[in-house]
Write a structure and sequence with these properties.
It contains eight helices and three strands, in the order H-H-H-H-H-E-E-E-H-H-H. By secondary structure, the protein is mostly helical. Strands 2-1-3 form a three-stranded antiparallel sheet. Strand 1 and strand 2 form a beta hairpin. The chain starts with 19 loop residues before the first helix and ends with a helix.
């Protein structure tokens, strides 16, 4: 069955922008919960194939139709959170580097324009979900929103940056100030890691 990676930093590493308690609960309860639910469903249907999580999503048509919704929801929950945690660090590498910097400048004109567009799209999301920076079918960068735990891999898009907009990701610290959380994400985003993902997938 599947597992989740260890956090690449301590629970308090993202303070003051995301507090220690939120990171702990988010990782140990929510992220782990999606994994536990996914493994339980796959065990119930006697899933035997040696797919990666991404391959599991891409081959969802092979699984029983009555279980696909729950499998996609929980697999998406694991994949989305894996990326979300990896996108942030205490190192404050919050300016694009490498080929990603070039691609952002080409697609958006400047980092500031990109940042403003990402914040705008995140602010437009209603209810729970994620805002992603993805590599689209043409190999270009695109900012998209998905509801709940829907993963871009379902649409053969490659996510390289994720912002969790479920209330459990910010409510203990920010309460209803979601826009403040969205803006503060750019204080702890790690563009070194995001550039690695970008360069691995172009």
């Amino acid at each position: 069955m599947y597992d989740i990676p260890n956090l690449p930093y301590l629970y308090d590493a993202l303070e003051p922008y995301i507090d220690q308690e939120t990171v702990k609960i988010h990782y140990e309860k929510h992220h782990q919960g999606y994994l536990n639910n996914l493994n339980e469903i796959l065990e119930k249907i006697n899933f035997q194939k040696n797919y990666t999580l991404i391959e599991l999503v891409e081959n969802i048509d092979e699984l029983p139709i009555e279980d696909r919704g729950e499998i996609l929801f929980n697999a998406g929950g694991v994949l989305n959170h894996n990326l979300y945690w990896k996108n942030m660090s205490q190192h404050r590498n919050n300016r694009p580097v490498g080929k990603l910097a070039d691609a952002i400048n080409k697609e958006y004109g400047s980092f500031e324009t990109f940042k403003n567009e990402f914040i705008k799209q995140a602010s437009l999301l209603r209810g729970s979900g994620f805002t992603f920076l993805v590599i689209n079918h043409e190999g270009n960068l695109e900012i998209i929103n998905t509801p709940n735990q829907e993963t871009p891999y379902l649409y053969k898009l490659i996510p390289i940056m994720a912002l969790d907009l479920w209330e459990h990701s910010y409510y203990l610290l920010y309460q209803n100030r979601r826009s403040e959380y969205i803006n503060n994400f750019f204080n702890i985003v790690d563009f070194v890691e995001i550039n690695k993902l970008y360069e691995e997938n172009i």
